[in-house]
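Following up on my earlier message about manganese (II) ion. Here are the inputs again, as you asked, copied directly from the submission form:
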Amino acid sequence: MKELFIKDILNEQYIGKKITIKGWIYRKRELKENIFIVLRDSTGIIQCVAKKENFSEKDWKDLLDLQIEGSIEISGILRKEERAPEGYEIEVSNFKIFDKGSPFPLHGREEISTIMKYRHLYIRTRKQNAIMKLKSNLLKYLREELEKLGYIEVNPPIIIPVAVEEVQTLFSLDYFGKKAYLTQSSQLYLEALIFSLEKVYCLAPSFRAEKSRTRRHLHEFWHLEIEAAWYKLNDLINETEKYLKKVLERVIENDKKLLEFLGRDLKPLKNAIEKDWQRIKYEEAIEILQKKGLKIEYGNDLGADEEKVLTLEFEVPIFVTHYPRKLKAFYMKESGNGKTVENFDLLAPEGYGEIIGGSEREDNYDILLNKIKEWNLPVENYKWYLDLRKYGSVPHSGWGLGVERLLMWICKLDHIRETLPFPRLRETEILV
Ligand code: ATP
Ligand code: MN
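Thanks, got it. Here's what our run produced:
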């Protein structure tokens, strides 16, 4: 195992002391009398210098043979060195090579096809390292802040018998001779669970065979979903704004360094923490878009382009509420004499667009039954779901948040594939 990590030694305490550190070769520069190695581990990088005069011919040759990403243990004295990347340097006295490595196929300017082919190696980059750490922390904050609000974590199944969202995006599988599907959302199960636990959440992968290829759609993504009994749409919106502000505050407090490493401008995140979020009805959103010259009418869905224009209008996240009923799922509660539904999409600023879809759910048995029929869904499959409106139905609301979508905005990434080590995208074969 390993006792010292690079981040631990980058401080005054170790100056002048002999330390031993394990890691991989990040960069290497060979001069006549010196070899400079930048060593990398999970926590950072440090420059090491080996002087020829201190090594046997064999050792020197081994150091020369070391490849980028070769693995090594280095011992030596730590000292301050302003010219080194982190301001410190180790003067190597001994080393032990674990694997000298082979010519590394990635140098940093590869085409995306090469990166996807070598994804298992690409995830060693410092950028990926920072994103994965941020994601780990983000997941922790998302969970903990829900727990503080009284939500209980539950684990609904991934293999399901019926569609939750559009049937066209279902992945099917053979379940002992019968067709079953990979879940697109755990919502229906969460609804069943609120009658016991009142406030529940789950964090699980969702699967969608999206037809269009975009920068923000994966076929497998991490879906954080909540459902709360007794919540009306407004209760949900108010709580969601406070909740996500708290999550963002924790990101800024604890992960500033990672964000700065990624070159993230913190201002938009700070705006989202400090200012009131925008709330507009779908109808108003259409008017804004029309004024901006977009060809869109009441009844059209808002796609990535429309969402982008809207988010550039405001510097905070936007709740777009009350979409026309036909644009949204059958389970959403109707309002406006059946013209609209009690829903919201939460759009992230800076062009990012939808990160959450939420709504109050239809809690009336007859209305729900009629909608299931109107949506041409097989009523027998939804019998259990309808039962929930028969045995003590209550108003309730919930949402689904795309963890990668949120992370993509927080880190200001160009493409959602950067938010996962092994993204599932149609344009790239599953190699790893
Ligand atoms: P979109 O219109 O962007 O496809 P959606 O309306 O299908 O989203 P919902 O069904 O409301 O989305 O799902 C809830 C959340 O899950 C979305 O707000 C988004 O953050 C996330 N999400 C949905 N589909 C995907 C996907 N294919 N890849 C990544 N995240 C997704
Ligand atoms: Mn979708």
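One observation from looking it over: Residues 115-419 form a domain with the BirA Bifunctional Protein; domain 2 fold (CATH 3.30.930.10). Hope that helps, and feel free to reply on this thread.
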